[in-house]
Amino acid sequence: MHYSLQMKPKIGDMCAVPFKGSSRPKGANPKTVSCRGNKLVMKKEKTNFYDVLSLGSQNVGFDEIKKAYKSMALRFHPDVSPPSRREEYTKRFIELHKAYETLADPILRRKHDFELRLTHQCFPKELWENQLEGLRKRSCERMKMKKKGCI
Predict the structure, then answer these.
(1) Which DSSP helix (H) or strand (E) runs through 17?
(2) What is the pTM of this model?
(3) Buried b (16+ CB within 10 A) or exposed e, 34-59
């Protein structure tokens, strides 16, 4: 059985993860294990399309969405922008159009609302760091038990 471990400074003791099966598959790269909490990539917060269209709440109908889009699109259309701010207006117009497409379609709107609710449920950094540390410890203990033949 082959083990691989990627060590980084300040990680401390880590345990190796075995390959499934008795030998490493040909041409396969060894897997690495890293328990650094600061290496985790948090998902970027989702853009709130209701704010993009300057809508006060999520409880608006299709007519209000369409009206808000038309007024914002007329204001930020690249053809009516000053030459010095054309790039900014173009980006804003594209964002407005994406917001309108999403909120005008009932299925996409439900999906957007669901994702918005998920992004606002944030977990404190200490909580997930403690969870990762606990998982790492349990994994190491389990690997030690497995090596001893207790499992």
Answers:
(1) strand 17-18
(2) 0.51
(3) ebeeeeeeeeeeebebbebbebeeee
